[in-house]
Q: What sequence folds into this?
């Protein structure tokens, strides 16, 4: 079966494409910008499509010959909402058998991106397409949590109120290996998952300081937890942006997330994830231990050279 995977060189794409190829899928990888095609092909994709997926005609071209699509929207992309609508229109036009939408946990809450995902889910319901919505919580990302703590001795968290209520709020976290395992299972099993909305959350419910305690234990040294502003996060996510470029959309999304997280917890139940995986989901400590070992191994050759 041929499948289209969007955001192909993002955090998820790098994990899910090899898994889908190993499961026997013929993977077409879609990207919004040209470049790195050879790297995407080495992941296991059979071909790479480059184009503006906010245009339904372009999206239909990307879907030509595909029976399924795993739609991953690039985070905070200014055309994210249009991409979702274009996907639904194109999938109907082409006659895609199965749409798997990467949505978000609790898409009904008052965060801009969540509202987009809810709109996309509603569009799929109205479309008559066979679909599955995956609703993950916050991701465990090595660069965000482990690499920063390893190199600086601290883990930042982003808050709209400094050291206020966000420090007390608990979040669920999901390992991307677990999420991509679920995505592959849903695509392999197809019709068994039509019209399902799966809320996916890991087993932990952690405050930022709870995460810092785990990282301290894993690394064997004190890891501080430092509040940063939404503007700091914008700079961290887009450090080389063009000063003349309009970044108001991305900034509004970041501020929307920070404002909600300062007031409310963001937690889910891990049982659906456990059922889909057929095993216990990955804990934050397990994730951090594995990521730390991998980062240490990657840095070991450079350290040996530096020390002569």
A:
């Amino acid at each position: 079966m041929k499948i289209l995977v969007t955001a192909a060189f993002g955090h998820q794409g790098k994990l899910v494409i090899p898994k889908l190829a190993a499961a026997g899928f013929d993977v077409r990888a879609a990207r919004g910008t040209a470049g790195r095609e050879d790297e995407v092909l080495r992941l296991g994709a059979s071909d790479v499509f480059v184009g503006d997926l906010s245009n339904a005609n372009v999206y239909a071209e990307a879907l030509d010959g595909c029976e399924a699509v795993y739609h991953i929207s690039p985070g905070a992309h200014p055309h994210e909402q249009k991409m979702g609508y274009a996907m639904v229109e194109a999938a109907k036009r082409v006659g895609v058998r199965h749409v798997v939408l990467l949505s978000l946990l609790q898409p009904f809450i008052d965060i801009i991106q969540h509202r987009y995902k809810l709109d996309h889910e509603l569009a799929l319901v109205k479309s008559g397409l066979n679909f599955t919505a995956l609703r993950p919580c916050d991701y465990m990302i090595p660069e965000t949590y482990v690499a920063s703590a390893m190199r600086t001795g601290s883990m930042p968290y982003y808050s709209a109120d400094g050291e206020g209520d966000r420090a007390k709020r608990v979040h669920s976290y999901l390992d991307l290996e677990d999420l991509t395992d679920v995505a592959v299972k849903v695509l392999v099993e197809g019709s068994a998952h039509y019209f399902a909305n799966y809320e996916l959350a890991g087993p932990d419910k952690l405050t930022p300081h709870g995460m810092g305690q785990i990282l301290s234990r894993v690394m064997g040294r004190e890891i501080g937890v430092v509040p940063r502003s939404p503007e700091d996060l914008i700079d961290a996510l887009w450090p080389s942006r063009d000063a003349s470029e309009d970044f108001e959309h991305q900034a509004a999304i970041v501020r929307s997330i920070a404002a909600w997280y300062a007031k409310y917890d963001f937690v889910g139940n891990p049982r659906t994830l456990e059922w889909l995986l057929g095993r216990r989901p990955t804990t934050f400590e397990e994730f951090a231990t594995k990521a730390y070992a991998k980062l240490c191994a990657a840095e070991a050759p450079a350290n040996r050279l530096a020390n002569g």
